[in-house]
Amino acid sequence: MTIQQLIEQSNNNWDNVLSLAHIGIELESRSRFPEARKVLERAISLSPVNFPNLYVSLAFSHFRDIHSTDEKGELSIVQGLGQTDSDFLKAWYIAFIEDQQGKEYLIEYLNSLNDPIIMITLGHALLWQGEHDKGWEISKHGYAALGPDIIDNIPDELDLYCSTLIWLHGSIPEVQADTQAIPILHQLQKKYPERYSYYAAEITAFQVAKRWNDIIEACKKTLHIFPDEETTMLAMALAFEKLEKYQSALLWLNRAIGVKYTFSRARLVAARILKKIGEHELAQQVILEIPIANPRYSIGKVQVAIFLYENDNISLALDYFRSGYSDLKPHEKAQIDQNPIVKKLLEEQKKSILLNILQ
Question: pTM of the entire structure?
């Protein structure tokens, strides 16, 4: 089902909470955040108590949206707790709670429930707090508590266990996302053949395992069901790039941009590949499209500046850096400050300010 079909379906089912719940969750998983929020908020207004998972999807529609804030996402969880008193939401709230004593009390309470799904949710939430070992132990015990025949009667929520496996792949020796998560995801795909998140997780599991050919096959399968899914097209392109099949990569990047003209990362990857194959002028042309196609994407302007600086276009790089860096969110700034080129741009910016003062 395409994005447009989902939106049309939501308009035709505006009073049907079950339909809206499915559509809202699907739109969030497919990175259509304003549209997802509109549908999720309507579904919650129709049934504020019975669907605690909608508050999680609403929260992520803020967390993952560059035009929103993490605070709005956290507020969605808090509001959900106030409406539902859901243990599922309490487990998710562990990801944000700062009070150590309160966190430990809540963890103890949630563990005492002996609910496998709550344990899996709690374990995943602890990853957000940087508690990887503890999160894995709780997730592992939750999965084991589901019993040996779990694949035959698989719960929907096991995608969160798969997300934990993907997150910890490479950092905990016993975790192998591709061999452990993918059989679960295949069963979830069989049970729910039109839920995009299960297919996206399979692609990600292959990505962390660096199985490039398997990524391509998984992407083909996904695009057969979700033909307008630009993130899958990007994943396909990145796999082709790893295999040094650059023209195939560029083809899929162009398709991704055609589906979503604001798609900055696709342009960044395209520019990188064009530079690799010696098309420097075309690479710069593509990179300069980012602030035009997505002018509110501040980190995109910084990425443009980095590219221009690496290509000795210092003056233009500084123009983009000034207009983007000051508008970065704190977590974006913390991430981007690790880039050595950003450090050089900051120094260049200081020099230019000093020259202007002295003139």
Answer: 0.92
